[in-house]
Amino acid sequence: MRRVDQGGRRPAPDGRRTIATKPAARPAKTSSKIGTAKLPATPAKKAAAAGPRAARKTARTPIEPSKLETYLSIITTSLDDDKAENVMVLDLTGRTSFADRMVIATGLADRQISAMAAHLETKLEEAGLRRIRIEGAGGSDWVLMDAGDIVVHLFKPEARALYALERMWGADLDEPPASAASAEDE
Length: 186
Prior knowledge:
186 residues; Beta Polymerase, domain 2; 33% helix
């Protein structure tokens, strides 16, 4: 092993004198200022630097009331056939922009809830409703089905009591009209 002293010198092969060597190259100092080094920008970096995009404003076009009622009857009939409990249909017209109706039902087991979701999907596709999105059908306490203007929630009893969607969206939380409120004050 060769010995190198602190000055960057190493002994000569004969051991009498030392030979000067170049010190190891050090990396060039980088500037601490942001933006001084120009690196090639990737599309992801450009998008991050540009900030969030403005949301597209696409208005939801509601379906015909006759089709809506047809789909609702298919959903409630299918849930009754699959032994769903406490089936509740809430009218969301004028309250929200994402749907006109919400159906809430209870199933006793994960397998029952998954089967109800699969049957609903099949029957709605046969009726002509396409692009039904399902979340949680792999076996959970809550399955959400987005069928456009109708949203279906399938719960286990404990989850339904915990989330209490019928209390959140139900008619009992609506504000009474101004004339009814003033009549109650008298």
